[in-house]
């Protein structure tokens, strides 16, 4: 075998190992979620089995259903996304396109807020929310999610706003359109793509958040990432059901991630230059 | 906001033309202020105010389990912290966890990006599959690893270990193995991030420099060392900064996999502050720990940003 062929097969092997390693936990949960509890427990692990949707039926419609938790996750994520975008788009536009004193400081402030460790924010927040009775409420969780979603969304959007040529808005402005109208009619349509990417990121981050959710959730509002603990206990783990819940919890983010794959890389890179991601 | 905009419009018509530029600038300032106000008020309320309140609570004894002992204690919490062995060990664990995961992510991510860069086919697979870990919730990731991957005699890793003749291991029950496990999980989840960012940066490098280097008969290693690495340096440093910030405050995966245990073997400083505040309900001391974590974060990021500036 020539050196080139050896090289080729070595590369192929390395690639396959990494692709398998990254895909495996996801694929394996999916497989297990289609098994019966007995098949899921089998040793050695079963690759061939007759698939069933039993586990999904149980976790969705059985007692202790996680349907309310999926709804909680959805309300929190959609709510956070809407509030964040309503505030971030105008702020990002101002930071990217307008001249005003203290602009540099404003940009730095947004960046600096991302440095705060979440555990430092949640301790005082918990005390305040407890006093005003906002523990276990949607507004309590959505409000604190702004602490990480806003800075991220603003920085990401600024990078998209900066890409538009200035002549665009100058022309509209000279034609007599007001600034607000220019922003709404001329600028926003130009950054539709950037806004879509930002929405995906804000939704993903809100869906995946865990620390704030653990502290602030209760019986009424409990996202699925927190509720999945019910399926693991010291005495026994409900393997097939746990797998089904995991798959349901990852479904929205995996679908979004794969669909928006190309744009996510740009988002990550922008984050890499300007801000930070979420853990 | 609407009324402010109309007010400036009225002013503009009343003022002589020579002041037009000044009026425009003023109008722009007001418009900017109106656009920024909602976001900045929200940021003040959700980041700056909690930070000040955190520093304030760290000067109190605030025990939710024993409220009758609460009161102002000044710097007492910080004095206790300096002699708290669990604090120092959690700090050390934080540094080991952060250092090792960041180095592994950057080295593996860069190696893989270089490898994939040269691929004629199959790049697309990498791009799609690499997205998976990055978008998953660390809590879900932790749960999957804890059960389907690492559980003794059930998880796939243990299955492989047994078949490789290593025997079944108590991956999360042994202090050293538990630490190795959480490091591997973090590296597994976030290496694709470093990989994707570095791959994007590699793709943006100018091709003609490499052509010239090839004509000069530079070896592959020389090309990597003299061209790729220096050109990629800003991207690498930025990846290091971002991953460090995140690793220092990692929470969900460690919390779901080991809960900081066994004992305090995987308890990073972040987790210690959480446990102290919300499990042991000692909020004042927990606040002091969170302030310490903030100081550590600022110090480390200052060093990293200095690294970024240097040349």
From TrEMBL, chain A:
Where does the protein end up? Cell membrane
Q: Which Pfam families match?
A: BPD_transp_1
Task: State the annotated membrane topology for this chain.
Answer: Multi-pass membrane protein
GO cellular component, as recorded: plasma membrane
Keywords in UniProt for this one?
Answer: Cell membrane, Membrane, Transmembrane, Transmembrane helix, Transport
Q: Does the keyword Oxidoreductase apply?
A: no
Q: Which GO terms describe its biological process?
A: transmembrane transport
Domain ABC transmembrane type-1 span(s) in chain numbering: 70-260
Q: Where are the transmembrane segments?
A: 70-96, 108-128, 140-161, 182-204, 238-260
Q: Which Gene3D superfamilies does the UniProt record give?
A: MetI-like
The family this protein is said to belong to: Belongs to the binding-protein-dependent transport system permease family.
State the name under which the record lists this protein: ABC transmembrane type-1 domain-containing protein
